[in-house]
Prior knowledge:
Oligomer: single chain
Distance between the termini: 47 Å
Largest sheet: 7 strands, mixed
CATH class of the domain at 200-341 and 349-367: Alpha Beta
Strand order of the largest sheet: 5-4-15-14-13-6-7
Bound molecules: ligand MGD, iron/sulfur cluster, molybdenum atom
Number of helices: 26
Strand content: 15-25%
CATH topology of the domain at 200-341 and 349-367: Dimethylsulfoxide Reductase, domain 2
CATH superfamily of the domain at 200-341 and 349-367: Dimethylsulfoxide Reductase, domain 2
Amino acid sequence: xxxxxxxxxxxxxxxxxxxxxxxxxxxxxxxxxxxxxxxxxxxxxxxxxxxxxxxxxxxxxxxxxxxxxxxxxxxxxxxxxxxxxxxxxxxxxxxxxxxxxxxxxxxxxxxxxxxxxxxxxxxxxxxxxxxxxxxxxxxxxxxxxxxxxxxxxxxxxxxxxxxxxxxxxxxxxxxxxxxxxxxxxxxxxxxxxxxxxxxxxxxxxxxxxxxxxxxxxxxxxxxxxxxxxxxxxxxxxxxxxxxxxxxxxxxxxxxxxxxxxxxxxxxxxxxxxxxxxxxxxxxxxxxxxxxxxxxxxxxxxxxxxxxxxxxxxxxxxxxxxxxxxxxxxxxxxxxxxxxxxxxxxxxxxxxxxxxxxxxxxxxxxxxxxxxxxxxxxxxxxxxxxxxxxxxxxxxxxxxxxxxxxxxxxxxxxxxxxxxxxxxxxxxxxxxxxxxxxxxxxxxxxxxxxxxxxxxxxxxxxxxxxxxxxxxxxxxxxxxxxxxxxxxxxxxxxxxxxxxxxxxxxxxxxxxxxxxxxxxxxxxxxxxxxxxxxxxxxxxxxxxxxxxxxxxxxxxxxxxxxxxxxxxxxxxxxxxxxxxxxxxxxxxxxxxxxxxxxxxxxxxxxxxxxxxxxxxxxxxxxxxxxxxxxxxxxxxxxxxxxxxxxxxxxxxxxxxxxxxxxxxxxxxxxxxxxxxxxxxxxxxxxxxxxxxxxxxxxxxxxxxxxxxxxxxxxxxxxxxxxxxxxxxxxxxxxxxxxxxxx
Length: 741
Ligand SMILES: Nc1nc2c(c(=O)[nH]1)N[C@H]1C(S)=C(S)[C@@H](COP(=O)(O)OP(=O)(O)OC[C@H]3O[C@@H](n4cnc5c(=O)[nH]c(N)nc54)[C@H](O)[C@@H]3O)O[C@H]1N2
Ligand SMILES: Nc1nc2c(c(=O)[nH]1)N[C@H]1C(S)=C(S)[C@@H](COP(=O)(O)OP(=O)(O)OC[C@H]3O[C@@H](n4cnc5c(=O)[nH]c(N)nc54)[C@H](O)[C@@H]3O)O[C@H]1N2
Ligand code: SF4
Ligand SMILES: [Mo]
């Protein structure tokens, strides 16, 4: 392990996620003790250390598992993985509890009750595969292969996608596009000609000023990014945070701008205005690499700091103070592009474009301390027959979303509900709980009711599983091989996931499910390997590392394929139509959209209602960890944040039990009210992922409130097809006696 004296564990937890994480080190519940995961490692001696990588979120941190027999004693961060840097976050540390969770899916099942009732009977894998294959073949015969769709999120998904594509369907989609970072992908692609990688290529080691829009790092626990942020602050880098809520990171900022929800673009436009007015832009970058500067200059003339201050409801002086910090630091300024950026529909693209344009004007793209140019590793594709010619996807056939690089989950759901532009009749769902991750659960259920077959491959009996016709239980991430991790960064790397222990149940890994089901579907020649080691070895050929070495080390570092920074004299052909960074986007103009970023104010909530904001707990990932015995123990419920002025108007006191409702008759709770000045009076806030309804989740069921149950109104962005999910307003009332638990 490398010596990291500047960043003790206490240092980084203390620096970011203080309250919640402090519990992690102090608790000693009976349940957590029963799993022996909190006992001192000296009590039982490991007989081996197995490297792998985490799947509790998609940062996919490298880990080292200490194992005795078939029991995991501890998980810790892999010292040589750039995304872990020797540490795991609180969730990753608790990952081993998912292996021994008594609630997990243990064997394949087929539905016996009504859809959604969650009644199943156990079957063998052969029967499960045959049932699926018959269903899918029937759908293909009646409606064509495009009537099958894959909705997926996670490492096993791409192999299932290979099966689906070989079977003839183009319809595969992940919530990580349309419900997460899609608008960022589109905005940066339109401006710089490429989307940003994940992990984001943020040069936090060199930055002198960071600007965060929402991005509530510390609560959003993306491991290495949080560590790097803490180090940057220690080095003296300045920090500006825009957030209507005083997030943990906002509480530590030099300038916190508690902007009105959805008004970030106004502030961005004012900063662009100031850079141009004061002739402070990075002329070397702008002259050599951009087009549309004059048009931008004219466009931003009216956007003074005073104008932005009125739009955003923050003092103009603070907008100027933040600008001064940026100006002093340029070009080493990091305009964080955000990650969950699908807030309001088309305005999200405008905000993303404004962030990208500001980055360009600062000269901070592919520059030290800004966004660097990542190198990606290349490995071989596993050979297989050519894929068939695919028909148009649902979104293409509907002529929607001219700039979407991917099919949208919402497009698939729409086609399934309405039969337009063509019917979708079968879903394979892998690793995504669509009931919680897609806005408007009513539309999701309506779509599911229209299906001839719903197959769900999962590890836990979450809400989506209750609706399945066939349930395929996957090995947990600590019990299986998955495809290689191809890590992009300053130093690219290849990482391996391998079985740390073996599953005690009749579960299987996704690669095996894809291979075996493909055989039943008649496309098994895509998976012409016997063992997954054979597959991995074939992919690693010529990469400089063998499978045996990788299994031992866990990660293999490669040399960069390109310099991280643009050289001053470098002629670079950007992958846009003009070959330049497009400050003015003719592409957008040609399709009838604003070619320069505009600010559209978000309407105020109706009287007595609040805008619903949501975010992350450092101890949970989306809706997938609330039932984890250890994490449940540390953080078993969420609370609803409300400003004291709003609470007193409603006659609600701190700590009372409330229900949160929307205008469609949905209600969630009961949940405790947190009365705090850390949130703007027109908003309420809750952590996403709680309020599970599935009875199969014995710990998480009914705990807290679900933002997903409330988000009915969503705004579809016509440019890239992403769904803004903060358009929902809600009301809060005291829970009645019969509603309390
Ligand atoms: N612990 C943990 N970490 C995670 C995850 C997890 O589940 N758990 N998930 C990961 C994933 S997939 C993602 S996409 C990211 C999501 O995390 P982020 O990308 O950081 O998500 P945001 O939506 O930007 O952040 C939520 C914050 O935005 C603020 N906010 C709400 N409205 C506005 C607004 O109009 N303007 C501004 N400036 N701020 C606003 C909220 O008050 C809240 O503090 O987190 C990642 N990290
Ligand atoms: N209302 C609301 N909606 C949101 C968000 C929000 O904050 N609020 N966040 C959005 C964002 S940023 C994102 S990225 C998405 C996330 O959306 P999802 O990825 O759908 O997130 P989860 O709700 O965690 O659902 C994960 C599902 O995968 C299962 N699972 C976990 N591990 C494995 C595994 O190893 N194998 C298999 N087969 N299954 C597994 C879990 O049991 C669970 O059923 O949600 C988006 N939707
Ligand atoms: S950030 Fe935490 S949960 Fe996500 S992969 Fe890393 S250790 Fe796992
Ligand atoms: Mo996300």
